[in-house]
Design goal:
The chain has 297 residues and is α/β, with parallel strands linked by helices. It folds into three domains: 84 residues, Winged helix-like DNA-binding domain superfamily/Winged helix DNA-binding domain (Arc Repressor Mutant, subunit A); 97 residues, D-Maltodextrin-Binding Protein, domain 2 (3-Layer(aba) Sandwich), CATH 3.40.190.10; 97 residues, 3-Layer(aba) Sandwich (D-Maltodextrin-Binding Protein, domain 2), CATH 3.40.190. The protein has twelve helices and twelve strands. It has a five-stranded mixed sheet. α9 links the parallel β8 and β9. α1 packs across α3, α1 crosses α4 and α2 packs across α3. The termini are far apart. The relative contact order is 0.14. This is HTH-type transcriptional regulator SyrM 1.
Amino acid sequence: MDTKKLDLNLLVTFEVLMEEKNVSKAAARLHLSQPAVSTQLSRLRDLFNDQLLIPARRGMIPTAKALELTLPLRLALDQVRDTLTTHQNFEPQQADLTVMLACTDYLQSVIGLSIIETLRRQAPNVKVGLRSLEPARLEAQLANGEVDLALMTPEAAPPALRTRHLYDEVYVLIGRKGHPQLVDDMSLEDYVRLEHIVVSLDGGKFLTPHDQALKALGYSRNVVLSVATFLIVPELVTQSNFVALVPKRMTLGRTDLTVVSSPVTSTGFSVGMVWHERTHGHSAHRWVREMISHIML
């Protein structure tokens, strides 16, 4: 390869073309004309001696060489970007920043708004994108920039990622206000006879780690409903005699619920931040992480 032909802008164009797989869309993102992007693609083909992207009925199809180049070139560009931004002072009031956060619906509901409000109070031009946590894809998403920061149980994060503990959560038992059987210090016999809702994030499962703990004690609770999200559970119990174990922070400020401790010591969970080396030294992302840590104190 003749490195004299190398232009960093060509690599940026390649990165965007691989994401869009469409010259017109790439041109719009790069704020260039379509002919200019087509010219840059031609230079890229000459540079790598490969077609890279082949026209198809809808958009373009990357060649094997293009797929092979994507990750190392993205990492190289990220390193250049980080090097340039790390040595700049981050000024929140002037920053034009977009942060993509991945977390469960529970975390979106209990801490999402406070994070957004605090970040925007300090950095008025910041934009925050909240998206659902996808554990199986998280490492790749953090590496390629789809996600900048994840809020989750740190112990469940892939070992190559960086983590920081934020707080510990516990489960409490909830039911409608005035539920006649929902009282503190209830017996295990009374507890398991209640009609329980369980949350199965995968959907449709009726056994949880809590049920395993009950089984070890020789009990099995009466599970009548399995749902895929914590968010609808409070509304379900307020309109029925169902009860459910939910994270305690979900109940704060609710006056329409009866909240008691579970007669079984349920394992709680920790919540923390998870991020990739890609953003570790980035001054803006460091600031975001520090702000979130401060919010959770």
